[in-house]
Structure formats: C-alpha cells, structure tokens
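Researcher: Structure prediction, please.
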Amino acid sequence: MRIKYPLATSTWDRKEYDAMQRVINSSIFTMGNEVALYEKKFAEKFRKRYAVMVNSGSSANLLMVAALFFRQEGIGLQPGDEVIVPAVSWSTSYTPLQQYGLVVKFIDIDLKTLNYDLEALARSITKKTRMILIVNLLGNPNDFSRIKEIVGNSEIILIEDNCESMGATYEEFYAGTLGLMGSFSSFYSHHISTMEGGMIVTDDEELFHILLSLRAHGWTRNLPAQNRITGNKSDNSFEESYKFVLPGYNLRPLELSGAIGQEQLLKLDHIMEMRRLNALMFHEIMRDFPQFIVQKEIGKSSWFGFSIIIKPESGIKRIEVLNRFTENSIETRPIVGGNFTKNPVIKFFQYNIPFKLCATEIIEENGFFIGNHPYKLDIELSILKKALKNFSH
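Model: Predicted structure follows.
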C-alpha cells in the first residue's frame, strides 16, 4: 500500500471523545460552562487577562476589527481609516477590513520569512495609517521588536492574525499576544482542533466587554454587572435578557468545541515539540536542494507547514514539482492565498499598493507548501526527499 504524505491529520484520541460525551450527557450544547472554562485555561496558557472563544478564526478576525469601531476609552477606528496588511494571507484576514469601510494598503512580504518586508513596511507608514495587521504566516512570528521600533511612539494600533501560528514564540512572548488583540484558529488542520473554533486574546478590559457583546447579538446578557459599555447593568434580569447595545452577530461556539479545546490545550506543548523536530529534519533534507527557498524562522516557529519556493533562476517549473509530488502522494497547497490582490474579490475593496509586490509575485508563481504533523515524519520526509531527487543538480 502506498504511503501518503497528507496535508493534515487528526490530533484527537479517546480524551476528546470522552469530553464530547460529557457534553452529550449534560444535554447542554450551546455556549456555557465548557466554553467558559476553555477560555479561562486559554488565557492562562497564553498569559493574557482575557480570552473570548468564537466559532472560527475568521470570526475572531471579524470581531477584532469590529470591536475597534465601538471603543470609547481608547483609540478606535472609523470608515476610511488606512490599515496596512501583508499581501500574502488568508481571505478573512482582509474581508473584515473591507466590510467596515477601511482603506487597505498591501505591502510586500519577505521571501525568506514570508512575513512583512520590514523596509517596505517602514516606507509605507504615513500620517493616514491607523492600524497595522500583523499576520504570522505558517507558524512564523514576525520581528516584533523591529515593527514596534518602526511604529515608535505613534498611536498606530497593532493587531495580530495568529490563526496559523498557535504556540509560536517571539522572545518570551507567545505570537498572538504582542498586539492589542490577537486571533487564533482551532480548525481541523491547525495546531489544535475543536472541529471549528477561534479565540481572541487581549489585556484590554473595554475591548473584552465589547467582544462579549458583539459575539452574541450585541446584547448585554453576557456582560458583567459592571462593564465598560453600559456602566451598571440593571438588577432586573428580564429587562437585560433582550437589551441590545451594539450591532452584533451570533458567532458563539458550541459546548462540544469548548470541551474538546480543554483537552487539546493540554497537548499543545507536545504538539510543538514534534512539529519543531520535524522542521529540523525538513531543513536538513532541503540543504541538498539549493534551488528551493524554505522559510527562515523568526523567534521559535510553530511550523504550521513547510513552504517551498522555487528560485526563479533555477529553470524549474512549479507544475513539474507539483506533478512529481502528486505521483508520490504528497499533498500540496498554495502558500495561503498567494498574492491576494490577484483575486477577483479585490474589486470590492478600497485599497492601494504603494510599492511593487516583488516577493509576493514570486510566491504567487513559484510557491507552495506541504503539511507538518504532531508526530515524527521520518517516512513522509523520506518520500519528500525521493520526490525532490528529480530536481537535484
């Protein structure tokens, strides 16, 4: 039987199924105590004051952006404000910005790290810049020291899309915790899985309360008695049951996801250990193939997957490599969304591109990635090495 090198595999065992059974036995499936306990443990793990669980990482990105429009006590956003973004990321890194009427400025990425080209970022900041969206791509943290140096004493807001980089660290901090807010995803193919699920972390109490309200209809029901939105809630629970104060959504997660998340979080350190071990083996193999560029680690990556970029001067065509990988049962995907500005959806955006997206274009034409997993990939990486031999010089 041919061995496959899949893009993603399950991280569940008996403990996750037992957790689901606990919820089934309780007969309470909508957001409740299991979600609340998972949020508490998540905040403790990532050393943040608050964590708010939602039904996906995409929803987490949406709520982060939305919350900044209803902030009263700190710096907020308004339609027409300029937000800097990297040109390579997932669609729902960007779409909340479009939906809230923000002007999106696309910046090139670094071909080696796949994160911001820091020189291009520094040149792109103007007096109009109100926020920078930092995307930690494929497990790799950005260079936060340099970004904060670039921003200096300005009032530019920094938020993180950390949906692909749970468990990564920069200096002593977890990726996703270095901005005003950070989003995480626990979709099936990500570091931990709650089926569908996302999380937002922050230390800002006002934003925390806004997130709680926006997550569930914009009502007051889930707010504490004293909160930063309404001040003091009424003692009359009937009056507060359907009191709407913000234009919210229904992005609540299920109790099943909260229960599973508690078990998955206990496995995260081991998952990181195995993914990093696999990364060492992957880089050792790729040293023999200088025609390809692999991701350069910043801080300690959580190695979501392994990117491979064909050097343009190599003469190798991507389709040839992809076909060879398919023959060897190695699953591949584009590097996230490639050059997002090439997608037809861009016609709905207010955007500008101040400088050429040189590295982004190379990734668009010559890049792809393969999977990493929470177990040793000795066999799978040997298949990779065999598949690459056709392209050795």
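Model: The radius of gyration is 22 Å.
Researcher: Thanks, that helps.
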